[in-house]
């Protein structure tokens, strides 16, 4: 049968058709068609009427909610949805109110919008309803549906949509006769059916709006004026260049989503890889929305934290540039520098700065939004901030809802460069199940990066493998910067030296054309070797297979893909000859690591000299903190040097280990910032899959936490184990931290609450040990010296230990000989400087640094760089020491004005009495880091085979095993210590740090010689005394001693002299007997003075 016509036919003449309420015979199908036609026509007219009213309304930002709420009860019954039949034709509509266009508008339920009628299904078997009855039914029905899509087509168009219903009717209504199917419907005027006054003007069809030309007539709400929130927007004028750059950032495409989530949720998480623009653009989104403006709804500043000072300063400068004339409202605050004033609206800072602020103002009332950037790095300060802000956020928002004066809601944004957010969203201590923050994933602006694994993994000489790989890239691949990741300063300097030597601009024939394998089976530069083994490193020596891990899972397809890739690169080079790497083009090699002076660090951002290829050799500092332009090739050694801290022993070690998979992906992503790139991994896929952890351990597992515990105690968070850490530390670490604070006198012994001296210690932004030294340092005029020492310990050793050349190479060319002579001279200069500043009778390595600080400050500023170079000193460290001295002095002037201290750069050297007092103050801070000479504890100890004089520490039972029983039991003085060269080594020393070398020896750094009698008087919390033995008073020496003591006191109480044996530390070290003068007070003998 042919398909039915969609055009309704005119009924035959003579048929009884009396309208909708007539008694003519109708089939169910025709009834359904007519009812549907009427329904759709009504909806079309209602929509046109509604759109006309919407065009005459005004916008309100509270209407920005989901369309799911459409159909809620109307707030203004004076605006009906349907036309009133009895309305006067002279009713005039108020002129529309035109307001400024605001992007991102939407509708809010209950603000002047009527109820949409529920769609009535036609009654197939009942009587046919008239248009009036349908209209009455519509007016009495509530909408139960979220939303319906209605068609605006006429009756002929509606038949196509109803064919499915027709099929159902045909299946279920066999009783219909063919006569019914042949009947036709009279095309009746819809106005007559609806009984509408013909004098009313019909609404026009709905106008079409272009996306790029939004309608200027927006909705006018009828909400109560007391509940309205003023729309606020700041217009920022940017240059075309900046606008073009911003448009290419992925985060700008998510601006509306991010701002809606910020407005709807107290906390959100934004995940976006490095380069997505989240760090620079989200603060600008908030700024443009009125956050931070004094006249806006959220007048508090927008605070952004960074884990590094360089990132905080550079990011603030960039955001200020992008804001143009508004850049004056952007500031930053780091440890030694502040550029914040009363007009600042966006403030960048380090996480430590915000942590100090939240300890003084738990609600952070001067902020409206806090952004925690780089949360994936899981630094200790960031983890603590997340825990604290999860509580202050809830408290402040609750106070704002209660209408507390001056309290506005606070928003928290956690930003991460990886999807490592499970510790945040799945931690019920942080966020309750009903308060889990939404996660917004922003795609990175990333070009495709091809990752190449090596066939074999070199476990020893990976620096040599990196050198080989860089050489191949430089000679065979098209132009583009090379970024090499190594583990530390020494490795970087070694590779930079080799690259400059072979490929530097001074080498004319550095290419070594047609260089082939030599007798040692070194890999050559032959093209066929490179084609067959591109991206798959071999070991340098054939017989070194036991030292490597072979990647047995590497498929042949990978080799084919690699060959195809190389073929593509060669074709690209032929098509673009200017992009081809020239053999005569030198490498522009630059190092990059944290201890490098700032001026040299900034060289990586400067333009590359013409005709050179950029090659940067860096540590993991280049993973996320810095974005280096022009990088196309990444060479990843797959390792990182991390600081490991043993909580049990206090031993610090820097160990090289495999990095995490997340870090490896971050490194590879550096090659795809400006164009397609390639990442060459100097390890196999098997090593990557089997040995690389998914993420690195949080810093809270790798560092001491006593400072964090003290800060929490100062904030009245007494039960630290209940604190909502994103990743809680082991309970044993918390207990050890509390015990140390108790030794220092910062916590009470039983209740573990903060003491008065603990409240003083927490004011200083340094380790609690150093805070204790500052709190007791105002004795004998030693405070300025103690401030300098605390600054030096915090900033690090200013002496530069030269990198010595190995003598293992049998063959050395002239450059190697010259370098060896230079380093030999540097070695002599280094030890000469140590001896010069140590003094004639050295007693402390830290006093030697104090001498260096004084000598540096006495030098004219123009000569300070030369002074540091001649004395093997690091200028950057000494400048940081000066800045920290200034900061600590300022804190003491504010909180302890009675100290009467001022910064005196050119301080005079301490006298003999002050030097003794300084050593005792050092003991007060490091009272649990005492080492005793092993021979002093055990005179019969056999020292045969030991290299150096061994010492025992208080916690040596936890020293890790290294295969040598002597190394497991003892520690040693560092070779560069001023105490190491003394003929008679001190019996007892206090150290500031324990470092474990690669050979397994544990060395003491920052050593200070102390007297055994000081342990009893200065470190009473760790000292126990035996029962006193009364000495006979008949001895002339004792009688004269008693007379001498009484002559200095006016007390008339009976006295006696007793002998006691002190025991120190957890192992109860027996110290020399002491004579103590006691007085009888209220029937009890009390210690008065140690004689």
From TrEMBL:
Keywords: ATP-binding, Helicase, Hydrolase, Nucleotide-binding
GO cellular component, one term: ribonucleoprotein complex
Compositional bias segments (type: Basic and acidic residues): 198-213
One GO term (biological process): maturation of SSU-rRNA from tricistronic rRNA transcript (SSU-rRNA, 5.8S rRNA, LSU-rRNA)
EC primary class: hydrolase
Biased composition regions of type Acidic residues, renumbered to the chain: 145-183, 555-566
A Pfam family it matches: HA2_C
Region named Disordered: 1-33, 140-213, 555-581
EC annotation from Swiss-Prot or TrEMBL: 3.6.4.13
Reactions that this protein is recorded to catalyse: ATP + H2O = ADP + phosphate + H(+)
Helicase C-terminal domain location: 535-716
Residue stretches making up the Helicase ATP-binding domain: 259-437
Organism domain of life: Eukaryota
GO MF: ATP binding; hydrolase activity; RNA binding; RNA helicase activity
SUPFAM superfamilies, alphabetized: P-loop containing nucleoside triphosphate hydrolases
Recorded family membership: Belongs to the DEAD box helicase family. DEAH subfamily.
The protein's name in its UniProt record: RNA helicase
Species in which this protein is naturally found: Conidiobolus coronatus (strain ATCC 28846 / CBS 209.66 / NRRL 28638)
